[in-house]
Amino acid sequence: MTKERVNPRSRMVAAGYDRIVDRFAEWASTAEGEPKAAWLARFAKLVPAGGRVVELGSGAGPDASWLASQYELTGVDISEGQLERARAEAPQARFIHGDMTTVEFDAASLDGVIAMYSIIHVPRELHPTLFARIAGWLRPGGSFVGTLTASDDPGWTGQWLGVEMFFSGFDAQTNLGLLRESGLEPVESEVVTTHRPDEDETFLWVLARRS
Ligand SMILES: C[S@@+](CC[C@H](N)C(=O)[O-])C[C@H]1O[C@@H](n2cnc3c(N)ncnc32)[C@H](O)[C@@H]1O
Prior knowledge:
Blueprint: H1 8-19, H2 21-28, H3 36-46, E1 52-56, H4 64-70, E2 72-77, H5 80-89, E3 94-97, E4 110-115, H6 127-137, E5 138-149, E6 153-160, E7 163-169, H7 172-181, E8 184-195, E9 200-210
Parallel strand pairs: 1-2, 1-4, 2-3, 4-5
Antiparallel strand pairs: 5-9, 6-7, 8-9
This protein binds S-adenosylmethionine (SAM).
């Protein structure tokens, strides 16, 4: 990955995730009410088995093994530490160490794009362009499923799970509008709160189709 092409906030995110491979996996496993499986099932109803699917911010690959059993999967992550674990989780998948805002895929070459809890780490001024890039990679009728912020956050930097981390995003209605403007028509969306011993978290889940 070319460092010059990564913005400083994403470089900080990558360095943080490199250091918390085990800690993040353990923390993620404590969520009550995690809706990932339900949204992946909705995605799977729209995206035929064997299709070409890209997961943006695939992390350590908690879902990569199942996804790779269904699809021709490519995972993209900015953290080499997370990717090392993902490669072991899903040896049959392809993984790219890269930034989702600059990684390249051919136009109309994908059946699906997945981004769970990852776009929330990308500076929000880059989101409209990122959504347009995703729409451009999808073939007409292709599907996007992802987790986005549900409330307005111009940008937060601070300590999270013991490392410096960055989050940002828009409120739910703005996100849905930005997706539409990018050519990704929301099919289903829901604001969901998950519960953990230390905190509750609320996100917008959305399934959208390339128009
Ligand atoms: C909260 S974790 C989620 C991992 C996985 N999707 C899951 O659901 O468990 C966010 C992941 O997004 C990755 N990420 C953050 N910003 C990124 C970017 N600009 N490009 C690619 N990956 C990014 C991080 O390195 C991290 O692995």
